[in-house]
Amino acid sequence: MNVIRFKAEGILNSFRVPLFKTYHRTFLAPTKTNIIGMITNIMGKSERWYYETLNENQIKVSVVINNIEGKTKDLWAYKVYKDKNDGRSIIRRDRLYKAIYTIYLLIDSEELFKEILIALKFPTSIPSLGLDDELVKISEIEDKIQISENKSGYINSVFIDKGYSYDVMIEDQDKFVEFPIANETPLSFKVEISDKGFRKSRQAMDSFKQVEYLNCKIELKNVISYTDGINRMVFY
C-alpha cells in the first residue's frame, strides 16, 4: 500500500457543515473534500483535476484528531448580489483553536503518490484546509508507512458512517471528551465544467455522515480497519 502520513496544524480553522447556511457550524476535522482541495492547490492542479480525483476515488483518506484546545466564534462579512445592507451580509462562524490532525493518504497510483509527496514537501501555494485565512502548517511527512490490518476492532480515526454499528470507550477520564457526532458530507459531485475550465454547475452526490470525536475511541464492528502502530484508522 502507498500511504503518506503527515501532521496538519492550524491556529483558527473552520470546516463548514453544509446544511448550516446562516450560521456556519464546523466539523471537528477536515472533510475529504477539504483535504483533496488542499492537495489540488499545493500541486497547482485545476478544478477539473479536483473533481476527477475526488469522484474517481483516486485518493483515500483517514484523519485522526490529535488536539483541539477550544472553540471560538467570529463574524464574517461577505458580499451579496442584492442592494440590501449595501450589498453585504454577516455570518457567525464556529472556529477551532489550535487544532492538530494526523492525516493519512492511501494512493493506488505510484506516479500520483510521488507527485503528492513532492507537493507536500515543496508546495506551490501556502497550504490551507479551507478559506485563505485558514492556513495550516504541514509537518512530519512520512512516506514509508507500513500498515497492517487492525485486529482489535478499536479505531481512533474519523470515519464515514454507512450504517455501521459501534461502541464508544473513553481513553482518559481526566481529559475533555467530545462524544461521537455525525454530520452529513458529500464524497463526490456531479459537476459540469466548461471547455475553458470554469465550473458551470455542481450537485452533491454520495453524501454520508462523517463521525468524529475527541479523547475517546470507537469499537467499529464488521469493518476492515488498519494500524501503523501509532493510530488505528479507517480509509474512505
Q: What structural class is derived from the secondary structure elements?
A: mainly beta
CATH-level-2 architecture = 2-Layer Sandwich
Instruction: Give the class-level CATH name.
Output: Alpha Beta
Shape: globular
Counted beta strands: 14
Number of DSSP helical runs:
3
Q: Total domains, how many?
A: 1
Helix content: 10-25%
* Radius of gyration (Å): 18 Å
* Main β sheet profile: 5 strands, mixed
Summarize model confidence as the mean pLDDT. 91
The portion of residues forming beta strands comes to over 45%
Distance between the termini: 15 Å
H and E string: EEHHEEHEEEEEEEEEE
- The oligomeric status of these chains comes to single chain
CATH topology: Alpha-Beta Plaits
- Unreliable parts: none
GO biological process, one term: defense response to virus
Pfam family, one: Cas_Cas5d
Keywords: Antiviral defense
Protein name: CRISPR-associated protein Cas5
